[in-house]
Design goal:
Elements: H1 33-39, E1 46-52, E2 58-64, E3 67-73, H2 82-93, E4 101-105, E5 110-113, H3 121-127, H4 132-146, H5 159-166, H6 168-176, H7 183-197, E6 203-205, E7 214-215, E8 224-225, E9 232-234, H8 237-244, H9 253-267, H10 271-297, H11 308-319, H12 325-334, H13 343-346
Antiparallel strand pairs: 1-2, 2-3, 3-5, 4-5, 6-9, 7-8
């Protein structure tokens, strides 16, 4: 059983992991890193900047001769590495391709993990589009395997959480473009569709399962998993949506349909599952539009609103399905098509050029 116990950061929503202030994080290694590494057999190793993300977490590549690893800096009190450690170990114990944990100091927020290299699924497909079908198929098969294991004690991804996330669109996007909308009606519309379509035996939902978080280790494993510390116990369709309606890259509808068919054939899921997929797709896409707007308005990260037109396209595709009729009616009445796009452009404050 996956039990995160008292980990204070258990299952935090991905949109809460935002770094106020500058868009580029300070990539100076943490002061305690050399001593931490020395205590675990990596004394004198080089510590090289690797990446920051939309949170307080930072990553460094550690090199010592022919040996290599990745150092995650998850500084308290803003971050808690225990959810990551618990889920990574749970995945590895069951044969899933999460990075091995080489060392950790939970109090300091330092974790040394296996280095999967630099090859990501996204860039591999961009460089060789013919590889898309095989790579997406591998990602689908991994989700099929994952649902075969009980979710354990993970916090539930329930209707309350789905409502809270969907509300990010009305809380951030609509005010950013000067729209006053029927918030109570929005909540009722989502309640109508959640009540019919989102109940299912829970599985481990990794929540940010997409081509930029899937690595190609090149060691016999087709894929490697990253960014799963916010996992919850929820509907099996959610990670499919994250993968096949990717906010960061275009996924062709034909490929989406092919991969959905592959998943349904492997699991025996029927039409109700397809309805749930589009309901959760609409919910996730509404959420992401709100998150990307907030990353701009609150956190000073102007690159995110430019991805909103892609997410709107996914959302409108989902809203075309009958299961979403109450939510589609709300959008038709409150957000006209010409106001569905990049909030920086629509607000007249685009200074990116």
């Amino acid at each position: 059983m996956l039990d995160l116990g008292a980990a204070s950061g258990m299952g935090r929503p991905m949109e809460s992991l935002t770094l106020p202030g500058a868009a580029t994080p300070d990539m100076t290694p943490p002061a305690g890193a050399p001593a931490f590494l020395a205590a675990h057999g990596w004394g004198g190793a080089d510590i090289l900047p690797l990446a920051g993300d939309a949170s307080f977490r930072r990553y460094f590549r550690v090199r010592m001769g022919e040996r290599g690893a990745v150092l995650m800096d998850a500084p308290p009190p803003h971050e808690d590495p225990r959810p990551f450690l618990a889920i990574a170990r749970w995945l590895v114990e069951r044969g899933f391709p999460a990075p091995a944990i080489l060392a950790s100091d939970e109090a300091a927020g330092l974790v040394l993990i296996e280095d999967f290299g630099d090859a990501r699924m996204r860039e591999a497909i961009d460089a060789a589009p013919h590889a898309a079908t095989d790579l997406y198929a591998a990602a689908i098969d991994l989700l099929v395997a994952l649902r075969g294991h009980p979710a354990g004690a993970l916090r539930p991804y329930d209707r309350r959480e789905l409502h809270r996330e969907a509300a990010l669109l009305t809380e951030w996007y609509c005010p950013a473009i000067g729209l006053n909308v029927d918030v109570a009606g929005y909540t009722r519309a989502w309640g109508d569709v959640f009540g019919r379509w989102v109940d299912a035996p829970p599985v481990v939902v990794l929540r940010d399962y997409h081509a930029e978080n899937l690595m190609l280790p090149g060691d016999g494993r087709v894929l490697g998993l990253l960014d799963f510390q916010d996992a919850l116990a929820g509907h099996p369709a959610y990670d499919l949506v994250s993968l096949l309606q990717d906010a960061r890259r275009d996924v062709e509808p034909s490929l989406e349909d092919m991969m959905l068919a592959r998943y349904r054939q492997a699991t025996g899921e029927g039409d109700d599952f397809l309805d749930a997929y589009h309901v959760l797709g609409a919910q996730r896409n509404a959420k992401i539009i709100g998150i990307f707007t907030r990353l701009w308005k609150r956190d000073g990260k102007p690159r995110y609103p430019g991805m909103c037109p892609r997410v709107w396209a996914y959302l409108e595709r989902d809203l075309s399905f009958p299961a979403l009729a109450p939510v589609a009616d709300w959008f038709d009445a409150n957000i006209p098509p010409e106001l569905r796009g990049d909030p920086m452009v629509l607000s007249g404050t685009d200074a990116r050029a």
